[in-house]
């Protein structure tokens, strides 16, 4: 799963449908009642390699889906699981139509399913609270905050738990220690503030006093700037709205807090290289000696973790800090990959065993990382990926995963795209920040009126 693919999906709504696994969260099937006498638990998974391979960037081995199947079978000999693996694809042949067709036809029990809350809202998913209530062995290995942020509206309950986090992406703020040293600027804090970033970005924009090269203090990914904007706004006290007890969304972009955040973002864009607005990733030279940008927000796991593991000499130069945090101590895009269960699943007890193993076992956590760079979300998951724990800022990377903002229920809907389009217009100087927010609000209100 590439970083760009992940950005196009609902934040934290990649639900992994898998089958057959251990009893307690993160354990095998010993002590359980499940056995292979029943029908197999079918699982739809998306975007994992069919065969073992080699990563083109790092040269590391990437395990095929068969290795996950083998690890599960070894840990759960009494449960039969069948994985249905499909590519992401696009359009009529993409994962979305296939998922829709399979769940309507009751073809699988567990799904890797973007936009799981939307399926739950239609009554197609199990509220996992019902499974937890019947399971005396269940242990919350993900933390109260993670499970609380996963809750969403359903036909019978406004606070359903339609998925459990399986693995996650991460977004941190990178900073180049060499450029900070060249400019004589104090290192970036582990938890930088809006004011600190603004001050230091301004200090490091211009001709480098040591090399004479043009340096830039700040960076933004223009085509995905909406997520950077949301982190900025949250740190400034903004809140997008809420989901009502009836399942309706209330969204307010046109507020003083969002206006302050957008005006700040536009001001900061002056410290970024020209052309940032058209980009979808990191600046040229990132993680090399040719880098010229000092502060680089929104660093995603696929952009830096495998590379720093493969290039130890760059670990001290390119450091990582937490994403911007609000007064609640949270901030940054929530990009968990959840596991959900179809309401039509005929063997829910076995499927529940599978889901727990897939969402918490060391074997599964290691597989997700080794095949796609995704990070553990369970407490103590660092042990499954020691390569990350060994990085200078490994602890920050892991903790950022657990301190993101809550999942945005509109992340794959028109409110996101309306805000992104108007943010781009403001950054390009085509409209004022106020005009951008007013237009985004109008388009969002039009969409909400049709829901």
TrEMBL record:
<dbReference type="InterPro" id="IPR006059">
    <property type="entry name" value="SBP"/>
</dbReference>
<dbReference type="InterPro" id="IPR050490">
    <property type="entry name" value="Bact_solute-bd_prot1"/>
</dbReference>
<dbReference type="Pfam" id="PF01547">
    <property type="entry name" value="SBP_bac_1"/>
</dbReference>
<keyword id="KW-0732">Signal</keyword>
<feature type="signal peptide">
    <location>
        <begin position="1"/>
        <end position="25"/>
    </location>
</feature>
<protein>
    <submittedName>
        <fullName>Sugar ABC transporter substrate-binding protein</fullName>
    </submittedName>
</protein>
């Amino acid at each position: 799963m590439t970083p760009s693919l992940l950005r196009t999906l609902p934040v934290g709504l990649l639900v992994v449908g898998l089958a057959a696994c251990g009893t307690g969260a993160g354990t095998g099937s010993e002590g359980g009642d499940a056995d292979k006498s029943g029908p197999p638990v079918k699982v739809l998974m998306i975007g994992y390699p069919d065969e073992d391979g080699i990563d083109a960037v790092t040269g590391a081995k990437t395990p095929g889906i068969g290795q996950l199947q083998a690890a599960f079978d070894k840990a759960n000999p009494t449960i039969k699981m069948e994985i249905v693996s499909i590519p992401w694809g696009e359009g009529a042949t993409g994962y979305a139509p296939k998922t829709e067709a399979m769940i309507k036809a009751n073809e699988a029990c567990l799904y890797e399913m973007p936009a799981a809350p939307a399926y739950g809202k239609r009554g197609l998913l199990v509220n996992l609270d019902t499974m937890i209530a019947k399971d005396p062995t269940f242990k919350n290995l993900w933390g109260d905050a993670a499970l609380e942020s996963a809750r969403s509206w359903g036909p019978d309950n406004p606070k359903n738990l339609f998925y459990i986090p399986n693995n996650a992406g991460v977004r941190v703020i990178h900073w180049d220690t060499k450029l900070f040293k060249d400019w004589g600027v104090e290192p970036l804090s582990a938890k930088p503030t809006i004011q600190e970033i603004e001050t230091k970005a301004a200090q490091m924009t211009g001709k480098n006093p040591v090399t004479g090269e043009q340096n830039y203090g700040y960076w933004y990914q223009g085509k995905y700037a909406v997520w950077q904007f949301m982190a900025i706004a949250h740190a400034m006290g903004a809140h997008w709205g809420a989901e009502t007890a009836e399942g309706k969304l209330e969204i307010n972009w046109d507020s003083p807090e969002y206006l302050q955040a957008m005006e700040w973002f536009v001001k900061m864009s002056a410290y970024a290289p020209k052309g940032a607005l058209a980009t979808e990733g990191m600046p040229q030279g990132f993680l090399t000696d040719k880098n010229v940008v000092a502060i680089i927000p929104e660093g995603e796991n696929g952009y830096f973790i495998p590379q720093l593991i493969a290039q130890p000499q760059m670990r001290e130069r390119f450091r990582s800090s937490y994403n911007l945090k609000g007064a609640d101590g949270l901030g940054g895009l929530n990009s968990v990959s959840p596991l959900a269960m179809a309401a039509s699943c005929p063997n829910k007890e076995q499927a529940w065993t599978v889901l727990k193993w897939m969402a918490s076992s060391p074997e599964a956590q290691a597989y997700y990382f080794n095949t796609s760079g995704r990070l553990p979300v369970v407490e103590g998951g660092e042990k499954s990926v020691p390569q990350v724990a060994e990085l200078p800022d490994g602890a920050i990377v892991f903790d950022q995963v657990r301190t993101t903002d809550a999942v945005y229920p509109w992340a794959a809907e028109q409110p996101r795209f309306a805000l992104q389009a108007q943010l781009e217009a403001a950054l390009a100087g085509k409209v004022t920040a106020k005009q951008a927010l007013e237009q985004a609000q109008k388009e969002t209100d039009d969409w909400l009126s049709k829901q």
